[in-house]
Amino acid sequence: MRPIIAPSVLASDFANLQSEVEMLNKSQADWLHIDIMDGRFVPNISFGFPVMEAIKKHAQKPMDVHLMIVEPELYIERFRAAGADTISVHIEACNHLHRTIQQIKATGAKAGVAVNPHTSVSLLEDVIEDLDLVCLMSVNPGFGGQKFIHNTYRKIEALKNLIISRNSNALIEVDGGVNEQNAPLLLEKGADVLVAGNFVFSAADPIQTIANLKNSTK
Ligand SMILES: O=C(CO)[C@H](O)[C@H](O)COP(=O)(O)O
Description:
The model has no long low-confidence stretch (mean pLDDT about 100). The longest helix is centred in the last third of the chain and has 14 residues, at about 150-165. This protein has eight helices and eight strands. The N and C termini lie close together (about 10 Å). Helices cover about 30% and strands about 20% of the residues. It is an alpha/beta fold. The relative contact order is 0.17. It has an eight-stranded parallel sheet. Helix 6 links the parallel strand 7 and strand 8. It has a single domain, classed as TIM Barrel (Alpha-Beta Barrel). The structure holds ribulose-5-phosphate (5RP). The site of ribulose-5-phosphate has 23 residues, from strand 2, strand 3, strand 8 and helix 7.
C-alpha cells in the first residue's frame, strides 16, 4: 500500500500560508501535519489556534495535529473545534495517558500518541489497542530541518510487532528528517505515514517532491 504523506506546515512560508495550503490541496498530500509548540514541552514556540483556524479555512484535507505542549488535556476540545481530525499528545507530557486518549476520542477526533527518540515504544503496551496513530519522533521535537535519528528503524520494527501482537489498528507515523532517501526503508520496516517538512517546502517543486514520497516503495 502507498504511504500516507503528511507535509508539515511548520516548514511552509507563513507569509504565504494560503497559497502553501492551496499547493497542498493540489498535491498528492493526504494530510496536513500541524505542529503546535508551547515553549515549555519543547524549546520553541510555533503557532496556536488563530493560525490553525486560518489553515483550516483553506485546507481540503484532514488536519493531523501534533501537540508538543505540556498539559495537553487542557486544550483537546479547543484543538478539535479549531479543525483537528487527528490529535496526538506526547506520552512524556501526559500523567494520565489513558484518560487523555479517551478524552480525544470523545471529541470525535482520532487519537494519537507521539514518542520522543529516547522513549521506548514498550510503554505503549497497555494503550495500543485504543490508538489510531503512533507518531515516532525521528528527531528531538522542537525544530524542523534536523537530521534523522537512525535508531528509528529499530523502533518501527518493535512498534509494528506490538501492534500486530495486540491486534491494534494504529498507524505508524514517522516525523523528523524524512526524505526520499530514507522513505523506502521506513516503509519496509512498517511505517504507514510519512511526515516531511523541510524536504517538501525547501524543494524547488514541492508538488513533485510530495508525489515522489507518495511513490516511494518498500
Ligand atoms: O515535529 C516536528 C518538529 O518537532 C516536525 O514535524 C518535524 O521536524 C518535520 O520537519 P522536518 O521534516 O523538517 O524534519
